[in-house]
Design goal:
By secondary structure, the protein is mainly beta. Strands 1, 2, 3, 4, 5 and 6 form a 6-stranded antiparallel β-sheet that branches. The longest helix is centred in the first third of the chain and has 10 residues. The radius of gyration is 12 Å and the shape is globular. It starts with 8 loop residues before the first helix and ends with a strand.
Length: 89
């Protein structure tokens, strides 16, 4: 299920906290990337959990740091560069 018409920073963060999603975005170098990611504690190894109280590792309102499920590390993207988000089924 894609949410093309509802891509907002708030909706992205909500979806990330609920489970695993695919985020397709344009990287700073202009290439497109899709990342399988989450901010749900069930998918992040305990030793990799952020020290923040709200489980959000973000540099600003426009950047979201997420746990990359496939590469097992923290990655970030700009919310204004997101093309689509899809739930992982």
């Amino acid at each position: 299920m894609a949410w093309e018409s509802e891509i907002t920073p708030e909706n992205i963060r909500t979806a990330l906290r609920e489970g695993i999603i695919f985020v397709t975005f344009t990287k700073l170098d202009g290439t497109e990337r899709t990342i399988k990611c989450s901010l749900n504690q069930a998918y992040i190894p305990l030793e990799k959990m952020p020290k923040t109280t709200d489980n959000q590792r973000s540099d600003s309102d426009n950047t979201i740091a997420v746990w990359d499920i496939e590469n097992e590390g923290w990655r970030s993207f700009r919310t204004d560069k997101v093309i689509k988000i899809d739930k992982y089924e």
